[in-house]
From TrEMBL:
Name of this chain's protein: DNA-binding transcriptional regulator, LysR family
One GO term (biological process): positive regulation of gene expression
Origin: domain of life: Bacteria
Keywords: DNA-binding, Transcription, Transcription regulation
Similarity comment: Belongs to the LysR transcriptional regulatory family.
Keyword Cytoplasm among record annotations: no
C-alpha cells in the first residue's frame, strides 16, 4: 500500500469524514474517496459507511486506526519533517509547550536565545501533547505547569507565581486593590482547563487549594482568550501572574488574589541525552528570567 493511501485512511478516521479529510490533506473529496475504495480492495476491509447521507468511518476503519496508530503517527511525523527539510528548517530548536505559558515566559526567552546565537537558530513551537512529544524524541525542550514525574524525563523548576485576577477596568471589582475567594463568590470566572499532560498540574492544584476549581464558568486553553473575554466584560479571568509580562493585560485591571497558592512553571527534557547548544542557551534564558 502506498504512503498516500495510509495518509488518507488516517485523515479520514481522525477527522471523521471524506470532506474533512480532503480539506485536511488539501486534495479533492473525490480523490479521498477513490483512495479509500482502492484501500478497501487491497485490505479486504470495509472502511467507508454511509450514515445519514455522509461517508463516515466503519467500525473496521476505527479499529484499524487504533491498532496502527503508532505507524500513522510516524507517517505524519515523516511528512512534517519532510516539510521542514524543504523549507530549510531541518536543523532547528524544537519546543513543546502549553498555551498558557507560550504567551508569557517563552517569547522573551526565545528572543534572548536568538540574540545569543546571532539569530542563527530556527525555532519550531508545538502546542500540547508535551509528554508525548518528549517521549517520541520530537522536541528538544518542553515547558508546562508540571511536574511530569515521568521516568526518562527530567523536570526543571523555572519560576513560580501566585494566581491573579484580570478584569475589565469598568468592572465593579476593579475598584478593589486586592481580591479574595469570598469577593469572587457569584462572579463568572474564566480560567484554564487541565493541561492533560502533567502528573501534578501545578495550575490546577493552585485553583483547587484556593477553592475555585468548581467555580470556573468558562474554560479556555489560551491566555489571550481569557484576557479578551475579560476585556469584553464576560467575566473575571483567573490566571497565573506570568501573564503580566506578556502585554496581554494592557488596558485591563490586574488584581492580586489573596492567599493564592503558587503556580510553578517547569522545563522538561529527556534524561540521559545531552541538550544541544541552542536548547541549553534557551534553558539558561528560561531559568535566568525567573531569577
Amino acid at each position: 500500500m502506498r504512503l498516500g493511501a495510509l495518509q488518507v485512511i488516517d485523515a479520514f478516521v481522525r477527522l471523521g469524514g471524506t470532506g474533512e479529510a480532503a480539506q485536511g490533506l488539501g486534495v479533492s473529496q473525490s480523490a479521498v474517496i477513490k483512495s479509500l475504495r482502492l484501500a478497501e480492495k487491497e485490505l479486504d476491509l470495509s472502511l467507508v459507511a454511509i450514515v445519514q447521507g455522509r461517508l463516515t468511518p466503519t467500525p473496521e476503519a476505527l479499529e484499524l486506526n487504533r491498532l496502527a496508530r503508532p505507524a500513522f503517527n510516524a507517517l505524519r511525523r515523516a511528512h512534517h519533517e519532510a516539510d521542514m527539510i524543504r523549507v530549510g528548517m531541518a536543523d532547528r530548536l524544537r519546543i513543546a509547550t502549553v498555551p498558557g505559558l507560550a504567551h508569557s515566559i517563552l517569547p522573551p526567552a526565545i528572543a534572548g536565545a536568538r540574540r545569543d546565537l546571532a539569530d542563527r537558530a530556527a525555532v519550531e513551537v508545538m502546542f500540547d501533547h508535551v509528554r508525548d512529544h518528549l517521549n517520541a524524541n520530537e522536541v528538544d525542550l518542553a515547558i508546562s505547569y508540571g511536574p511530569m514525574v515521568t521516568e526518562g524525563l527530567r523536570d526543571i523548576v523555572l519560576r513560580s507565581s501566585p494566581l491573579v485576577c484580570v478584569l475589565d477596568e469598568a468592572h465593579p471589582l476593579a475598584a478593589y486593590d486586592r481580591l479574595s475567594r469570598d469577593t469572587l463568590a457569584g462572579k463568572r470566572l474564566i480560567s484554564y482547563g487541565p493541561d492533560g499532560i502533567s502528573r501534578a498540574d501545578s495550575f490546577q492544584d493552585a485553583l483547587g487549594r484556593i477553592g475555585l476549581s468548581d467555580r470556573i464558568a468558562i474554560t479556555v486553553r489560551h491566555t489571550d482568550s481569557a484576557c479578551h473575554l475579560a476585556r469584553e466584560g464576560v467575566g473575571i479571568a483567573v490566571v497565573d501572574g506570568f501573564v503580566i509580562s506578556s502585554g496581554l493585560t494592557q488596558g485591563l485591571a490586574v488584581r492580586p488574589l489573596d492567599e493564592s497558592p503558587l503556580v510553578t512553571a517547569f522545563a522538561h527534557h529527556r534524561d540521559g541525552a545531552p541538550l544541544d547548544h541552542a536548547a541549553c542557551v534557551l534553558l539558561e534564558h528560561l531559568v535566568g528570567n525567573g531569577a
